[in-house]
Amino acid sequence: MAFNLICFVFPTKSPLISFLISLCIWFAVAIAYYFMVAVFIRVLCARTSTKIDDLLLGIMRTPILIVIASYGLVESLAALPVAPSAYKFFLRLFYTLLTFILAYIGWKIIKLIVVSFGEKWAQKTESKVDDILIPLVDFLGPLLTVIVAILVFCSIWGLNITSVLVGAGIIGLVLGLSMQDALTNIFCGVAMLVDPAFKTGDLIILPDGKICVVERIGLRSTQLYFLNEHSLIYTPNSYLAGVMIINITKPTVDLKCNLEITVPYSQDLTKVESILKEIVCAHPCVLGDLETKIEKLAKNIEGMKPFSNGLEIEKMESAKTKLDLERKVFQNLQRLLEMLKRLRRELALKEQDGLSREEVGEIKSRQVTPIEDEVKAVTSAVLEWSHYKDPWISEEEAQQEEERWQAQNEKLRLLWSKLLKRISRPVLGFDVILDEEVRIFADWIAKEYKPFIPPWKEPDVSFKEFGQSGIALMLEFYVDDIRLEHFQRQSRVIKEIAQQIQTRFANEGIELSVPQMKLLFDRHS
Predict the structure, then answer these.
(1) 116-124 and 129-156 are packed helices; what angle lies between their axes, rounded to 10 degrees?
(2) Contact 191, 240 (CB under 8 A)
(3) Which PANTHER family is this protein grouped with (predicted)?
(4) Quick one: 23 and 55 in the same domain?
(5) Residue 214 sits in a domain of what CATH number?
């Protein structure tokens, strides 16, 4: 129909000239559409308060341009003396291209609009339904989009899929009935991968009290390493999906420990509390304010020299050096987060009407370049800190720690590289969410890359109760990384702190009531 109209407006007897005229007209339509979207529609979208229309514009602009150009090419072929079978072949090619372009648009809409905005909405509501539906849509939506696209592709090219679907349904029913348990484990395994309660390397507590390391998560079973017996446990996924699992390494790898200490009523509680905090804060494997910790550790090392052997002092001095390096890491991270905060604030102000080339150049020179240098400083500081060996871990563990932080550095560089590309060459429609992408990047640094130590994780002494033999106090502290020393770091730290308390109390003339100490295992963090 479109070709007949063109022939009516531009009559000619030459098929080649008709083809070229039709092709030029369609390409002109495509170019006009492109500039209309780039100028007029973009301005209209920039004036709205929502970002959904900007994202839709960014998603659909180029695919629709391709559809217009390809449709014009196929329509123009009608002017040439092409055999009907050949023209039908090109028409099928166009429908195939249209199918996969629509699938691409559907994929992008699900990922960037439905899931992204759905997650933000789910965070604002108390209902758990949307918390479950959004991950399902994120997982099943793109998969169903691909399946539908493949079925439409088969239909376009005349492939008979009815018998195949019927046969697959019958076979699936038979297999489902005969392999119900196996399929249950597989579906549970998929669910565990989609919404994981733990990942490989995590330390978990099973319902029977076994403390295990997750070695591998398969579709049918999960492989666990049982620490106490140095053995492997192969557990069906359906079992793990149906019981309560305690993940000790989440949300962070540090572990809270409670040490109950009972002292007679005659003791000075202020003095007792001061001594307990001093002992725990000086331990290099306990979390706390690094400035205070380094200062107390240095004082503790000086006090150890007349009484301790050279190996113990050497370990403590090495630990102090590693804490100094870690302090440098946190200082660099703090500067980086402050820079990202300023960048996000400026982007939020300027992206409302779309970023011009001049604004992008100004932001790059004033904000982005210093951040690039600070990212390099952070990765360098982390590399130096991770390379310096913890004095209590083995060479194998030291190598694993260094590799773990090299992977973190690579992820940091990759995420920053992607963000830098989006800022340097903002895509039409997506330039309105650059501030949100900066926020996501900063949140990942603060929560996933190397989390800062919050004040509430610093050592503390609290009153528990008045007992028969004295006042019960609770000493609370966090061991820095329970994965180290073959997951025995907590035991060593507890033992050393208990020994130091007994020694220090004896020197200060402070008595311990019976029961003297009680360790309470806890993981509230």
Answers:
(1) 160
(2) no
(3) SMALL-CONDUCTANCE MECHANOSENSITIVE CHANNEL
(4) yes
(5) 2.40.10.170
The pair phi, psi for residue 407, each rounded to 5°, is -65, -40
Rounded Cα–Cα distance for residues 311 and 80 (Å): 90
Q: pLDDT grade, residue 8 (50/70/90)?
A: very low
Does 440 share its domain with 336? yes
Q: Encode pLDDT of 226-241 as tens digits.
A: 988 889 999 888 888 8
Please tell me the total count of domains within the chain: 4
Beta bridge partners of 463: 473
Position 179 in a domain: no
Separation of alpha carbons 462 and 484, rounded Å:
28
pTM: predicted TM-score of the whole model, two decimal places: 0.69
Question: Would the CA dihedral through 291, 292, 297, 299 be positive or negative?
Answer: positive
Same domain, 63 and 193: no
| Same domain (yes/no): 491, 362 | no
> Cβ contacts of residue 321 below 8 Å, gap of 6+?
388
Model confidence pLDDT, tens digit, residues 472-483 = 999 999 999 988
Helix (H) or strand (E) holding 462: strand 460-466
CA-based torsion, 503, 505, 509, 511: positive or negative: negative
- The band of 37, judged by pLDDT with boundaries at 50, 70 and 90, is confident
Whose tokens are 């002017």? That residue is: 79
The stretch 74-99 carries a mean pLDDT of 83
In sequence order, what are the residues at sequence separation of 6 or more whose Cβ sits closer than 8 angstroms to the Cβ of residue 517?
A: 259, 260, 261, 262, 498, 501
Residues 499, 392 within the same domain:
no
Claim to verify: residue 18 and residue 138 sit in the same structural domain: yes
CA-to-CA dists, residue 224 to 103, 185, 188, angstroms:
40, 16, 16
